[in-house]
Amino acid sequence: MSLRSLTPLTPDQADIQRLAREFAQNEIAPCSATWDRESRFEPRLIKQLGDLGFLGMLVPEEHGGLGLDNLSYLIALEEIAAADASAAVLMSVHNSLPTQMLLKYGSAEQKHRFLEPMARGELLGAFALSEADAGSDAASLGAQAVRDGDSWILNGAKSWVTQGSHAGVILAMVRTDTPEMRRGARGISTFIITPDLPGFKVGKKEDKMGLRASPTVQLVFDDMRVPADRLVGEEGQGFVYSMQSLEHGRLGIGAQSIGIARHALELSVAYANERRQFGHFIKEFEGIQFKLADMATRVHGARALLHAAAAAKDRGEAVGAHTSMAKLAASEAAMWVTTQAIQVFGGYGYMKDFPVERLFRDAKVTEIYEGTSEIQRIVIGRALTQL
Ligand code: CAA
User: Fold this and answer.
1) Nearest of 111, 87, 88 to residue 99 by alpha carbon
2) Residue identifier of the C-alpha nearest atom 39 of ligand 1
3) Which residue CA neighbors atom 52 of ligand 1 most closely?
4) Which of 17, 61, 139, 334 could be cross-linked to 67 through a Cys-Cys bond (beta carbons 3.0 to 4.6 Å apart)?
5) Which atom of ligand 1 is nearest to the CA of 216?
6) Is residue 4 part of a domain?
7) Are residues 135 and 75 in the same domain?
8) CA distance linking residue 41 with residue 43, whole number of Å
9) Ligand 1 centre and the CA of 239: distance in Å?
10) Which residues neighbour 15 within 8 Å (Cβ) at sequence distance 6 or greater?
11) Residue 360 forms part of a structural domain
12) pLDDT tens-digit map of 97-136
């Protein structure tokens, strides 16, 4: 029985899946345990993913990308995640949050200068919304921009920025209202930040439970002068742009979660086929069979929801709550499936010599970043009750 997608694929989508799988299994999977152990980020991944076109999958060809649909993108992302969850978050964050914002709201000049090299893989993108005191309550962020002639002066610190230390372009959310007249979510604007700006600093690199090959850093803006033409779209719309980009980002985290869960399931099936206890292969025990059956059902169920949400988005339908459902189902499946995988492996599952403990650690953050599971339930609940 196949553990891979049951979604019917076009010949082009099947080619992309094959390309992503071969690259992931040949170039990434053999290194992922070492990268995790050494917390090593490999810049070569940016170049390789860029050469494959995987950093501009959703960008129209006129802007240097492949101009593909969301389903093609998510199929490729699942294959990368099944080899290495850290490589997958690189691809997901880049393709969704900064790319989608520039694609939708960037000026022609901003697209030419930033989006096109991003789509070609020459510049890595990052997204800076959260702060130490503004996580789930993103609208309460406090980094401040003050207009000064043809520039803005930015002060503040952004927390938990995925690949912020290696990004060439960071889309940052900063307040442009005044302390005297706060406008809540409507007082936030989006700026294009580049590391060459005077006053830009990379702060603390976080020491994390999982995704250890993906650098997560604090970014500090210290009287950082940003040219006025770096404002994206309209002043005061940065929160809305963030929510729209996160709707897309959450699909990517869904695919990442499914890749992690599928990998854990594949390893568990293989182990159940070779491990003997009480004179039998453990696959012969109903307790193990039921576990594997439940794991497979959750992987297939979450993927079906994810692909349905992606297909609806490709048709231009409003899918905000559905992307939250897909992210919620996939991330909770990843956590549950990786927990069961450790149980199937028993004592070996708890040891770092075997890969399932890494998958368990990698899965946890999918229930937290790009909106916790509780935030996804709020988005779904509000949509159901029209709050
Ligand atoms: N599309 C368009 N507009 C939207 C929107 C959406 N999806 N969601 C909200 N808005 C608009 C609202 O309509 C509202 O507009 P008005 O001012 O006209 O009323 C405005 O934005 C404010 O919305 P809310 O009143 O709903 O805002 P809220 O403060 O209640 O927060 C929330 C809503 C859903 C809880 C939101 O804060 C949220 O999603 N929080 C989680 C933040 C998050 O996901 N952070 C992830 C960090 S990034 C990351 O992890 C990336 C990484 O590096 C891996």
Assistant:
1) 111
2) 371
3) 162
4) 61
5) 53
6) no
7) no
8) 6
9) 6
10) none
11) yes
12) 999 999 999 999 999 999 999 999 999 999 999 999 999 9
